[in-house]
UniProtKB/TrEMBL annotation:
<dbReference type="Pfam" id="PF21646">
    <property type="entry name" value="ACTMAP-like_C"/>
</dbReference>
<keyword id="KW-0378">Hydrolase</keyword>
<protein>
    <recommendedName>
        <fullName>Actin maturation protease</fullName>
    </recommendedName>
</protein>
<dbReference type="GO" id="GO:0004239">
    <property type="term" value="F:initiator methionyl aminopeptidase activity"/>
</dbReference>
<keyword id="KW-0645">Protease</keyword>
<dbReference type="GO" id="GO:0070005">
    <property type="term" value="F:cysteine-type aminopeptidase activity"/>
</dbReference>
<dbReference type="InterPro" id="IPR040043">
    <property type="entry name" value="ACTMAP"/>
</dbReference>
<dbReference type="GO" id="GO:0016485">
    <property type="term" value="P:protein processing"/>
</dbReference>
<keyword id="KW-0031">Aminopeptidase</keyword>
<comment type="similarity">
    <text>Belongs to the ACTMAP family.</text>
</comment>
Amino acid sequence: MTSYSSPLESSVPSRHPVPQALIPPSPLLLSHLHVPFPLTPCSLQTPVPPPPPLPPPPAMRAIPPHVYGLEKSQLLKEALEKAGPNPKGQEDVRRLLKLHKDRFRSDLQWILFCADLPSLIQEGPQCGLVALWMAGALLAPPSGVPLERLVQVAMDRGYTAQGEMFSVANMGRLAQETLGCQTELLHSGLGGPNRDLILQHLIAGHPLLVPYDEDFNHEPCKRKGHKAHWAVSAGVLLGVQAVPHLGYAEDLELPGLFHPVPSTPCQLPLLPKESSSGAIFLLCKQGKSWHYQLWDYDQVRDSNLQLTDFSPSRAADGRVYVVPPGGVQAGLCGQALLLRPQESSH
């Protein structure tokens, strides 16, 4: 605040010199002095400095999303602070598509089907249970099912020792018990007849759980199961020769990209042929990032189909893991899990 002095304050005539301490304070003077308390003779001789200014109000910080195990892990706390707030689903998908638009074939038009999934950062080897928790947002009641319950039930049933899940079949049993949903276990990989089944499932807005080998950037790779990881998908980007006229609208920012119009019946497009490479991308999330990732369908298929061996580093780390009879190959290789709400039909 800026103080303005009065001429009366700067010039007070004194015709009869009198000791300063005997001069009573003038009411007129007091009316022009910006002080919060009455002046005393002592205060006229030794002015009291004004109080320090109030500190600025603290900046408002966004409330971070809940992270299971955060209170026990300094590493997770640091990762969360660096990552920033959890992005909104539609904004994150749009960011991703803009980032990778050069990957999309120019001879095709593209249709995006995507149900919004929450994000959750895993602690330890809980990637499968975290992926199931994300899928539960589309399957369970609005209150949701806590991750702690998924972990506890999986331990009680003998499916896991620390949160790891090396059996797609056990994952299906766990989903049925905790989420009350329908499950369909797929064998023989993501290609062949399973391919159209998966695409129709995602177009309908239902989640897919798929194990794969995780590369350093979380994308699918081929490490013979040594980097076995889980992802959940509830979205697919299809490259088609022509977009049906009924029920689709072109994106205002990305020409050539179409979305189904909400609450409007739409004609399903012709699915790309299996020999048409680079025409199908899965929108996936996994437990080590807030963000959606866009993976070529064939890349996910190939990674899922070569999960054969248990990681040597895990075998030597002194921990106990629950691995089904037949090992990683019997529990994960070429398998995926379709999840549907209980009342849903195929």
